[in-house]
């Protein structure tokens, strides 16, 4: 993956993570199960829309980098 592709998947992952966080607030997710359901629903939408270009694994990894859970190793 070159720098342009890497930046694009990072941007998409940040947008996806932002959508997840805003949905948690909007829908009032109070526990881990509710947050997980919202997270998976939004991730599935992104995966369906962008799957030929990016895999679910790439989105999850870069969302982890975006939210500070994972360290960028690239």
Could you outline the blueprint of secondary structure elements for this entry?
Layout: H1 3-27, H2 32-50, H3 56-66
Overview of the molecule:
The structure is a single chain. It is built from three helices and no strands. It is mainly α. It starts with a helix and ends in an 8-residue tail after the last helix.
Features:
single chain; 74 residues; mainly alpha; 3 helices
Q: How many individual helices?
A: 3
- Summarize the main sheet: none
Strand content: under 5%
Radius of gyration: 13 Å
Beta strands, count: 0
Shape: globular
Helix content: over 70%
Distance between the termini: 10 Å
Order of helices and strands: HHH
Mean pLDDT: 90
| Category by helix and strand content | mainly alpha
Brief overview:
This protein is an all-alpha fold and 74 residues long.
